[in-house]
Fold these 3 entries.
Entry 1:
Amino acid sequence: MATEQSKILVIGGTGYIGKFIVEGSAKSGHQTFALVRESSLSDPVKGKIVQNFKDLGVTILYGDLSDKESLVKAIQHVDVVISTVGLSQLMNQINILSAIKESGNHIKRFLPSEFGNDVDRTMAIGPAKSEFAMKAEIRRVVEAEGVPYTYVINNCFDGYFLATLAQCETRLTSPPRDKVTIYGDGNAKAILNREEDIAEYTMRAIDDPRTLNKTVYINPSKNIVSQNEVVALWESKIGKSLEKTYVSEEELLKKIPESPHPLDLLLALNHAIFVKGDQTWFTIEPSFGVEASELYPDVKYTSVDEYLNQFVFQIALYSLVYQLSRNMATEKSKILVIGGTGYIGKFIVAESANSGHQTFALVREASLSDPVKSKVVQNFKDLGVTILQGDVNDHESLVKAIKQVDVVISSIGSMQILDQTKIISAIKEAGNVKRFLPSEFGTDVDRTSAVEPAKSAFAVKIQIRRAIEAEGVPYTYVVNNCFAGYYLPTLVQFEPGLTSPPRDKVTILGDGNAKAVINKEEDIAAYTIKTVDDPRTLNKILYINPPKNTLSMNEMVSLWETKISKSLEKTHIPEEQVLKLIQESPVPINVLLAINHSVFVKGDQTKFTIEPSFGLEASELYPDVKYTSIEEYLSHFA
């Protein structure tokens, strides 16, 4: 049958809905092509998507919307072109239309990037109105040029809206379990579809003469629901009533212009969908459209009810994992993490929970209303972590939290390092802690030749060490040296906007021969949790210095050059110039430069021998930890 099926080109296939469309095309037996920018291959996320396409038998064509020659060449391979480009590239679809015309008018069908509301039948306002206007403009050009088309209106993506019950102001990853915001009176009907189903209906439509020059609406009856109905359905599944906050239309209209981008766009979309009922206020007439589930009744789509079941299963699974963890915790220490919503803290909390420790996270009440931190906290809850509200400045909450555990790990940020004296005081009062790991997670501050302002930052950590020792609190200091996430994605470059290692030129501090140690955050967490119950590391320093992660800057650059098969132009900055730059740079650049001077010029992380009297090396103690080497980490960017 594949000989009768159209050959399909997807432009924008590495985007959100695009990857589902590409997979749906390939799995449906269509000869499938994906136009991909070469830069996508060096992106860790998109590179993985492209590899998945290849595994499915998709032909990868390299090109760009701004490169007409590559567009025409790609289009000449196929019968159908599907665009799934994002908001910022909507108007660039003019280039696709031009290329379709130039390729000889052999294209049987063009599907522009719609995949949302019907933009010709909307009452949207503000930023949503502007977005819809661009899509409407593309429609008019398609029609004026006489290009055969199908517009696919899938309405809402389940992954965007149903997974959070349309809570766009919170950053949830699963439906809320305590309170929910409802827009307007909650009675306007919306339509929510699973991404895989959208892809399947799209594939059905492209060779169907009934959908030629028509709008295909994906409006299956079981997926047409109001927000009130969705919330009630979720409540029935979890056996609990949620606290409901209704946001009136007037209040929402006021909030939209006051909100930063992209929240203003999300709120404007929610206004159109859940207040005005944009997706369901009109009747689909045969003159302009057809409904997908009526055309293709054999497609077994996922209903709203069925989609929500996966989250009920997750709750049960997390509960089971948590109970198992509690049972195992009889042999493992109970751990409290203070500063768990911070950079390294979230890795520590996750590893503690995943390792079977009964895990607690002390969280400030303000974090629960922070869009980013509240998402982290929700993830902790999903892992079975017990959230305790408190603050390092609230002695009572500290003592109460500490009394519930055996081990305290602090991962608070640089601005609160000295506040750890309050943790020490609370530990002394609680009287039950077997081990305290203060917020180190960097260079060994007792063995550094750092200059200002890094010297002062390290001195504060030294002060905490001495306070711990003077109070007789059992400890382990974790020295992980450099975070891979800070240094390796840019190969220690300060170039603004750089998100991957350079491919043309590189700056090297000093002569580039000083050895540094760089570790992946997940590995740091794994070694940290391994040490909490290890008597060998009691009152010692744990150095995370795996041999494959101990390299000089020159060695890292050489390794990267080998991976990309290209020599970089190297600029060495002598120590004298680095010291001058430190003095002339503003905060926090001066701090970063001073740390890099310590690490990559002075070699502070590797200039001494680890003696058994004060420390132990993690990869030797725990050879079963399969750490990620620098070479493996860089491979994601090659």
Note: The CA atoms of residues 128 and 269 lie 6 Å apart.
Entry 2:
Amino acid sequence: MEVEFGYVREYNTVRGFGFVSRTFKNKNIYQHRKGVWFHITKVKSNYPDLARDLDAGSYVDVSFWYEIDNSEGEKVSTIWLDSKDIPDQQRNDLVTYIEQLWRNIDNSPSQWLDQVTLALLGQLRKDELNKDRNDRICERKAAEEEELREIESQLGQFFISGMEFRTPGRLGRRSTIRDMEPERVYIGLPEHLNNLVLWVSRKYRKNRLSHIPGGSDVIVEYHDGRAFGYDWIKKPSIYIGSFFAGIVEYASDAFNKLDENSQMQIAKRKIARIFARKYNDDDEYSTAAFVEVWNSETSNEMPWKSLERFEVRQQNQDDFDED
């Protein structure tokens, strides 16, 4: 049988029965909506003063510990006004349950936890449990922050690996043909980026679609002043998203396991802005304008989500032009 704590919600002075609330567990389908049923006879035997108060209609703020009999629905079988009167085994089980609630930092503490712990274990033990809980929360937070720093460091290494660790020529400015093209190929791009963008050579990109002319150009501007360009990208959202997922070099899903807020923090600390444009052939390339797709100061979604929206808009525009 289980032990509970609750307040008298209703009492019928004529019929001598009432209902007491539950604290520790949610209602089940067999429980009366007003609480657990009890009869005055269970009160009179040990607590006659309380029985007289109930019969007089005074039950506001009346609370007690009780044992539940589930043989015929849910009803009170035994009542204790003081938790010290609860039999040792049942009290020990209850103490274990309460202490587990304090240690479980995955869930927010219930509103009643302070009050019940104080009544069951006293102020000193309640303070100890509260301190232990806060220490656990701090330890987890420190571990999560360390994990974030590690993931961010790995992502940072990937973002700049082409500049610092790849062989010469792996990253470079556009080919001679592109260098000879007019300045208008950078239409829409902030002027200061025109001479900063370093284009990642397609020969180092494994996806075969990256070697088929056409698609989208994506420029990623980082807070450290670097700007990398990727051309002929068929699915910008997937390509850029793969950086964060870690599947390009690190074969790790650590980033995906983070909550969305942590992911956003990393993205905004690393990337300043993302620009993109789409074109179908050389003629369109010469006039296609870059648009700002994502901005760390104003965007409220991950970069690849913004690129997904860009892809949809461009596809809708293509469909409209065909009509």
Note: The chain has ten helices and eleven strands.
Entry 3:
Amino acid sequence: MSKILISACLLGYGVRYDAQSKRYDPRFSLLMDAGLLLPVCPEVDGGLSVPRLPAEIVGGDGVDVV
């Protein structure tokens, strides 16, 4: 059966820049227990540390493509 990629921070993993997670939605438990969710954190998988300084675009006008 196919798995669903989901951001690890939405499942309660403390992988955000501030080492916190987003609020865990208990409805994910059923899918997690069934082995249908695959938690990923692209920032951590890309080599960023936890915790880390927050990243933001400074001096841009919203039209720039990064």
Note: The chain is about 15% helix and 10% strand.
